Amino acid sequence: MKTKQYLIIGNSAAAIGCVEGIRQLDKTGAVTIVSREAHHTYSRPLISYLLSGKTDRQRMRYRDADFYETYGVAPLLGRTALSLDPAQKTIALDDGQTLPYDKLLVATGSVPFVPPMEGLDLVSKKFTFLSLDDADALAAAVTADSRVLIVGAGLIGLKCAEGLSGQAGSLTVVDLAPQILPSVLDEGAAALVQAHIERQGVRFLLSISAARFENGAAHLTDGSTVPFDVLVLAVGVRPSVSLAREAGAAVGRGLITDEYMRTNLPGVYAAGDCTESFDITSGERKPLALLPNAYLQGETAGLHMAGGGKPFCTAMPMNAVGFWGLHIVSAGSYAGDAYIKCEGEHYRKLVCRDNLLQGFILIGDVLRAGIYTALIRDRVPIDTIDFELIKDKPGLIAFSRRDRQKKLGVKPA
């Protein structure tokens, strides 16, 4: 039998999930990874901890050092895929190679979004913060006296601020939105987290944006000026779809796939931040640039590429993050009836609609957040559990005996 040729473009969570999915069913097929980054697979969310010195390159690896060897993967790192020919089932690389495939996964991730801003080209020390190379470049530019201005108060901008805390002279974050983390938290939770971060010495300028730049200064829309030595652009990210789109792949807000992660191109799959997903809590199709979703999508693709598998139909927004020791876990959507409890730096919000838990925000005490996540992902009707008990004390005790046994893997008597 002909050995199947698997080709994966990308080297992050979706790509690794794909490799591990393939190897569950196919131990001998040839697997090649092509990545424009020259690094071993690494956990992208850890770049802020690398910047702060709390981790190192070895510990931020997403898999062990011998991963490629163990899984029989040929890594082509530091190589860029320039074009995809779905008719010939080949890709062309920047070094002139042409690689054939039987099954291809596009896991090209996302790219920083930098909107047009007047004078931005005049700024000599400007950075984005999405990759290991970004972290290295920023670390080399920042000194103990640097005044750092970060444009964007989302996850990327605030993790960058945390990574630079104690290493720069000052940290200022500006955002057009009236609150921090607008895509993750509600207003009340955002205010709590903002106060915590401000106590670490970070200054926020919200509901305002940069009207124009000059080298060393940002002129804001309220007429004020913020001087800076280093500028970080953390406005957001966009799915990296150009390679597949130019080959004819259907694109909406990201690459469009079915529940097995197949695109409309024969033999071509897509997974991770470059795709759009169906959010089971909102009913919307949108990019969900989240590591757990990326891995599960990649694994789903790998299993199907190898001839088996099951559909992936439980995508939803999820975040687990911490800022200066304050932990946050959130999931789902927040439209519905809300239960909110706030005590000091502890915040708990549960949102229900249509007899289902649709979303939650936990700040401070995040233990057993997985109970809430499972309720959402498994679409458990609220009237089948003791929801009043679970509001403040999430635990299996709120479930029926039969459901507890099922979740614990206990065989019924």
Number of helices: 11
Question: How would you classify the helix and strand content by structural class?
Answer: alpha/beta
Global shape: globular
Distance between the termini: 46 Å
Question: Compute the gyration radius: what is it?
Answer: 23 Å
Uncertain stretches of 5 or more adjacent residues:
none
- Main sheet properties: 5 strands, parallel
Indicate the proportion of strand residues.
Answer: 25-35%
Q: Helical percent range?
A: 10-25%
Number of strands: 25
Major beta sheet, strand line-up: 3-2-1-7-18
Mean pLDDT: 94
Question: Describe it for me?
Answer:
- By secondary structure, the protein is α/β, with parallel strands linked by helices.
- The chain has helices at 13-25, 47-52, 67-70, 132-141, 155-164, 187-198, 242-246, 291-305, 369-377, 387-392, 401-408; strands at 5-9, 30-35, 73-77, 81-85, 90-93, 98-100, 103-106, 110-112, 126-127, 147-151, 170-175, 202-206, 210-214, 217-220, 225-227, 230-233, 237-239, 268-270, 277-278, 285-286, 318-323, 326-332, 337-343, 346-353, 356-363.
- Strands 3-2-1-7-18 form a five-stranded parallel β-sheet. It has a five-stranded parallel β-sheet with strand order 9-16-10-11-12. The protein has a five-stranded antiparallel β-sheet with strand order 21-22-25-24-23.
- The termini are far apart.
- The mean pLDDT is 94.
